[in-house]
Write a structure and sequence with these properties.
Blueprint: H1 12-26, E1 38-43, H2 49-60, E2 64-65, H3 81-91, E3 95-100, E4 116-122, H4 128-142, E5 149-153, H5 160-171, E6 175-179, E7 203-206, H6 222-229, H7 233-237, E8 244-246, H8 269-289
Parallel strand pairs: 1-2, 1-3, 3-4, 5-6, 5-7, 7-8
GO molecular function: amino acid binding; aspartate carbamoyltransferase activity
Domain Aspartate/ornithine carbamoyltransferase carbamoyl-P binding: 2-139
Binding site for L-aspartate: 77, 160, 208
């Protein structure tokens, strides 16, 4: 692995290798990189969890983090992504972690660029590091993927998390179902009622409503969405005893999920954040090791 661009590019064996290494890091294993690598985080969209998580992971495996502020970069002057990354390569960087508004922005970096590229989210496309930390969270909980029922709920068509997880989970033997308003199903076949899904789901994976990626119908209201598609107290009571709740965050409390359930016993929402550091350590270690 020299890059991580999409879950479609990872084999099941590579997924399991990253999850194993993440577990080793969680259990106190130290980085085996032979030197300190120079990395930068190029975030052209807002981020709290992903950006900070990568920065923590980079420092934990001994990388030198070179500051990059997209709001003061030459991208504002019209510089292409290729020229930005090529410039950083010539300065001496080994890897860049990139989040961009454009789907598949990384296609222009596949030739002529010798730094490693880690996709931290491309438009409404893919979010592989989030998917891997979700897989880690699920596997840590159940010890398997085969035969589990995972229900993904919310803004499916605009969610890179939904797309990345659908690709990976199905390939690993998970029964993936989608629940959303009809106009938000996109390319996926979706349910429009909880009744067929709530009682046999092992994982309820909620998604943020992405107002910034589409025009929400004027008739849309947070109250009506919560009533029809949100995880309410009544629905949580119908879940299987060992079922868990997940959400990539940020959470719109009392919209996707009633606020009091965000930190309930079956919620893994903040555990996902913690797990993300170990998984991103494993991603970076794997990719940088491939450069040695």
């Amino acid at each position: 692995m020299r890059n991580l661009l999409s879950m479609e590019h990872l084999t099941n064996e590579e997924v399991y290798q990253i999850l194993k290494l993440a577990s080793d890091f969680e259990n106190g294993e130290q980085s085996k990189l032979s030197k300190s690598y120079n990395v930068a985080n190029l975030f052209f969209e807002p981020s709290t969890r992903t950006k900070t998580s990568f920065e923590m992971a980079e420092r934990k495996i001994g990388c030198t983090v070179i500051p990059f502020d997209a709001g003061f970069s030459s991208a504002l002057k019209g510089e292409t992504m290729y020229d930005t990354v090529k410039t950083l390569e010539m300065i001496g960087l080994d890897a860049v972690i990139v989040r961009a508004k454009e789907d598949e922005y990384y296609n222009e970096l596949l030739e002529g660029i010798n730094v490693s590229v880690i996709n931290a989210g491309d438009g409404a496309g893919q979010h592989p590091s989030q998917s891997l930390l979700d897989l880690y969270t699920i596997h840590k909980e159940f010890g398997k993927f085969e035969g589990l029922n995972v229900t993904i709920v919310g803004d499916i068509s605009h969610s890179r998390v939904a797309k990345s997880n659908a690709t990976a989970l199905k390939r690993l033997g998970v029964n993936v179902r989608f629940l959303c308003p009809p106009e938000w199903a996109g390319e996926f076949e979706a349910h429009h009622s909880w009744d067929e899904l709530i009682e046999d789901s092992d994982v309820i994976m909620l998604l943020r409503i992405q107002h910034e990626r589409h025009h929400v119908n004027k008739s849309f209201s947070k109250e009506s969405y919560h009533e029809q598609y949100g995880l309410t107290f009544e629905r949580e009571k119908r879940m299987k005893p060992n079922a868990i709740i997940m959400h990539p965050a940020p959470v719109n409390r009392d919209v996707e999920i009633v606020s009091e359930l965000v930190e309930c016993k079956r919620s893994r929402i903040f555990d996902q954040v913690r797990n993300g550091v170990f998984v991103r350590m494993a991603i970076l270690e794997t990719i940088l090791k491939g450069r040695e």
